[in-house]
Amino acid sequence: MSLYFFRISTGRYSGAADQPYEFEDRAAAWTEMTEVCANLLGGIARSLKPNAEWCMELLDENKKPVFRISLVGENVR
């Protein structure tokens, strides 16, 4: 079992969980991360501003990024 931390960033705010989560392997950690994101994204997308970004990362026990999921609102004109 490996320890992982979640970190969420939006604009200038970024915060990582203090408590680690334990997963059997990277595949299990990825599955949990995508499920958590699926539960959060509806609310996040409704309040996302143009040219803003929301990001969730899964960090290893050394708090180095392993996976990242990002949602970007872009003004293309």
Strand content: 35-45%
Number of strands: 5
Mean pLDDT: 90
Assign the structural class, choosing from mainly alpha, mainly beta, alpha/beta, alpha+beta, or little secondary structure.
Answer: alpha+beta
Choose one word for the global shape. elongated
> Largest beta sheet, briefly?
5 strands, antiparallel
* Continuous helix count: 1
Could you state the order of secondary-structure elements as H and E?
EEEHEE
Helix content bin: 25-40%
Radius of gyration from CA coordinates: 13 Å
Low-confidence stretches: none
Task: Estimate nothing, just give the exact number of structural domains.
Answer: 1
Give the N-to-C terminal Cα separation: 47 Å
Domain DUF6894: 3-71
Pfam family, one: DUF6894
Protein name: DUF6894 domain-containing protein
Characterize the structure shown.
- With 77 residues, this protein is α+β, with helices and mostly antiparallel strands.
- The chain has one domain (2-73).
- 29% of the residues lie in helices and 43% in strands.
- The chain is built from one helix and five strands; from the N terminus they run E-E-E-H-E-E.
- Strands 1, 2, 3, 4 and 5 form a five-stranded antiparallel β-sheet that branches.
- The mean pLDDT is 90.
- This is DUF6894 domain-containing protein.
Can you summarize this structure?
The protein has one domain. Helices cover 29% and strands 43% of the residues. The protein has one helix and five strands.
